[in-house]
User: Fold this.
Amino acid sequence: MCGVAGVLAGSNAQPADLDELKRMIAMLGHRGPDGYGFYRDERIGLAHARLSIVGLAGGFQPIHNEERTLWISFNGEIFNHVELRRDLEARGHRFYTQTDTEVIVHAFEEYGPACWSKLNGQFAIALWDNRRRELWLVRDRLGILPLFYARRGDHLVFASEAKALFGGGRVQPEFDPARLAQVFSHWSAAPHGSVFARVDSVPAGTAIRVDSTLALHVDRYWQPDFTADPALARLSLDEAADRLEEKLTDAIRLRLRADVPVGVYISGGLDSSVIAALARKLDTTHMHSFGVRFTDAGFDETPQQRLVAGHLGTEHHDILCGPADIQAALPDVVRHGEAPLVRTAPAPLFLLSRLVRERGIRVVLSGEGADEWLAGYDIFKEDKVRRFWARQPGSKARPKLLGRIHPFAAVNGQKDSPLWQAFFKRGMMETDDPFYAHRTRWRNTAWSQRLLSADVQAAADDAAFEARVADVLPAGWRGWSPLARSQWAEISSFMTPYLLSAQGDRVAMANSIEVRYPFLDPAVDDLCAALPDRVKMLGLRDKLALRRLAARHLPAEIGQRPKRPYRAPMTSALFGAGAPDYVHDLLSPEALARYGVADAAAVTALADKAHRQDGRMSGEREEMALVGMLTLQMLARYVHDELPQTLRRQCEALERADIHVLEDHAADGGMATVTTTLQPSAA
Assistant:
């Protein structure tokens, strides 16, 4: 992966100078430790921080076409670049690098905007068409990689992370109260935005064309289709597993393409283990695997991880994560993630990606996406039980099925209590609601909004979040099965804006590590969407086709394991006798008053309770509320107090580099391209 930044000037505005571009890209040094590149003309400035994965030599960006009329700054990987390049060369295109980046330029030259749908990859693209004076900002189908933009006067600024927008100086880091409140109900801001005022995100599967007047033309170039395929309706479970294995194997083969070693994550669960097993079949050379262990046995999966690694013969590396490790990592995670967190789960993954880097690996495969596309989460079972109950709302037997889901949410007989049943019964009859499966979770998390300041609470607008998610519901979605509808709601409202960001791109790229997701390959996803529900979930048995596939390659203990959601200790790691100093500092009355986003009395009362109970809270929503407020205070301190020092430090590092100017005609309004071989420190 890499870092992308740039500034587009209106027709009567001054172009960005090189210093502004340097400030922006300096803030993304962690995304690209192998050097910087710049392009500048009378309208646009492009900047790039490079992480070398494909085409190690001669691959500095921005990259251009033969006539130098198209310029691109690109973050990501195009996994089918070999096939696309072969086709483009047959059509007369001539390449000057071996990179997948140059393939995008020539594909656009050949096919125009239709090329976005031909790309099998994870990407964020800024492409400048000099002849048409148009900028394209494009994001992959599922939004695996980030791309933000903001309009300021007669300029449009864009970057992989918001901190680069702030570094350029045109955008000030101000919180958007409504979007902050969304985090405290939906775990993230709406998919089109960020927690910062007037800083927006290119939606997943979308290409935005910015014309010469800086008007934005938005094209949703891809939408899912969960319509049942009649040709697959009669598939047996074995046949479904055959098809899934074929598509997954192809996806992994493509994702093993790299000019650097590729490792695998092994969590001990079904999804990552299947990916590791199929990768091992394709690559019988020395393979490294990585996993997170926990000192708290309630979160630990060490035996399963080691069973899989031993079975596959990988060289396994792991970290042992305890409270002190989570405490140490959390501030860095928040700075890189640029959003409050209602869970600590990203912190161990941040530490894991650091371990990957220390072992000399740059690319790892992950099992993320299987639960969403193959119905592995308990939220899908919950949806099914509630719909079943809704058909006989007076039944005493049907609600007892709730006791078979969410094994980590309640214990000691709580699942038979009237309170537990009443919790899930609320809204149960509203089965036409597109977010039927998700409202229970959203309402539960929204309890934490009471810790926000009155101004932020007043701005809360859950309908705005839902409207943005509804924007990506394709025509005909009401004809999908209830399972399919809840799957897409999970993907678009949770996987893309939260999981792939907070637990994916941000924690990995903080350590210059690229994570690849075979389950998010277009062919895999199209197959999963078209498969009949009965090979994904039957009764309350989940991921049936994937489990049948796993039985062919993995020990039975792994293939038959119940879903264990990835979690990490929360308030038990941060509050009580072992609380780090920053918890007391950030949640002090002075700090709470300073940033103005918290209800100081409510936060203080709940934090005092957590300290008295040594971090052991009575319910998860209290834990999430406290983690959310702590990380919000961390983020507020970073953007208001620490950002200027970070910018100065990063710019000083950049200026120490030996910058080589390839071309420089900027003084008379021409172009300039610059590359460096800087090894920048993390922003």
About this structure: The chain has a mean pLDDT of 91. The longest strand covers residues 70-78. DSSP finds 25 helices and 21 strands in the chain.
